[in-house]
Amino acid sequence: MNGPREGTRGSERDRVVLVTGGGGGIGSAVCRRLADHRTTLAVADRDVEAAREVALEVRSAGGRAEPFGCDLSRPDDVEDLLKSVVARFGALHGLCTVAGSIRRGDITELSPGDWRASFEDNLDSVFLACRAAVPHLASAGGGAIVTIASGWGLRAGRRAAAYCAAKAGVVMLTQAMALDHAPAGIRANCVAPGDVRTGMLEREAHQLGRPVAEFYAEAADRPLGRIGEPHEIADAVRFLLGEESSFVTGAVLTVDGGGTV
Q: Domain 12-193+228-253 is classified in which CATH homologous superfamily?
């Protein structure tokens, strides 16, 4: 990670990174990839048991990780999460916001509750986590934020109005943070995945009343001819959190097999 003052943070071996939604498909893959670099991981998830399983897996492989439960829709819970992470590990050097959900439907099919819930899960959660993390990143001399948006935050998809709008908000929020917090040595970048083989993609098929195999086959209709795997998104996150991307901020890295092309 990069900042204006060299030597103000530890090496990648002892950096501390918080991953929200760390118990899910992409989140757990991010944790596994970051553990390869011996990063100390705070694995946060609404499902604390899922967070515990991922933390145990990382520790079993020789890494260092601790689970944290948090409802990312509650500002006080998010503030408490960040305080707990810093109290436990002494600092925060990176944040990856993975937590999110999808509710399929056009605007006539979505209720106002669906709309609000989509924004709470996909955009408000990012705002709250970043808002709570920025002061700690600045105190550590700088750091990196990586948000997870979507190809549908860049180009609209059918029957996904709330999701598209919320993920577009994630893109703009990330770029605004890149402008605002660069003087503190904080980089903010965004990964925009396409369809990825996760539980959320399977739930999406069920929402639409589609057979999973058929839904996956249609999702594979893109230049590379397949859907993505969680570790491929995690590789992009690892790059944007690491020193290799020290001159990158405000970027949107699309990892979608060419789907938005």
A: NAD(P)-binding Rossmann-like Domain (3.40.50.720)
